[in-house]
Write a structure and sequence with these properties.
2,3-Dihydroxybiphenyl 1,2-Dioxygenase, domain 1, 9 strands, 149 residues, alpha+beta, globular, 9-stranded mixed sheet
Length: 149
């Protein structure tokens, strides 16, 4: 049975991106690891980018009742992500997308209340974010790792 190793990161919708970046940077002590100039999103971490690219993703555009963008769980291996994929198909868990972020392989899905969740495996590759390339989790691990970027 696959398992998650830890909570990896959380995405939050915020009302004022600059105010939120300043709070999490200057008060909480996180640093910005990447930003998306198109959307204004900020990826933030307390660690080195290679250890954990981001633990918090801030996204502008918070509306009433819409706070959490996603909750992501880190896996120890690509085989765990592949096994979750198989299990989700078997149990008819709604899959949103399967993707390589270059620095991670992610499987996005919904919980029973429609919240977006992700299980992912960090590849160890330092790759600028945001980046998303569709990936086939039914392929072999060799095929997947050969096509990350």
């Amino acid at each position: 049975m696959p398992k998650v190793a830890s909570l990896g990161h959380l995405g939050l919708y915020v009302r004022d991106i600059e105010r939120s970046k300043a709070f999490y940077r200057d008060i909480v002590g996180l640093k910005i690891s990447d930003e998306n100039p198109k959307t204004g999103s900020a990826f933030m971490t307390s660690k080195d980018r290679l250890d954990e690219h981001h633990e918090l993703l801030l996204i502008p555009g918070r509306e009433d009742g819409k706070v959490v963008q996603q909750i992501s769980f880190r896996c120890s291996s690509l085989s765990d992500v592949k096994e979750f994929y198989r299990l989700f198909l078997e149990r008819k868990v709604p899959i949103i997308r399967t993707v390589s972020h270059g620095n991670a392989v992610g499987l996005y899905f919904e919980d029973p209340d429609g919240n977006q969740l992700e299980v992912y495996w960090p590849t160890g590759i330092d790759w600028p974010q945001p980046f998303g390339k569709p990936i086939d989790l039914a392929a072999s691990e060799e095929e997947i790792t050969a096509n990350l970027t």
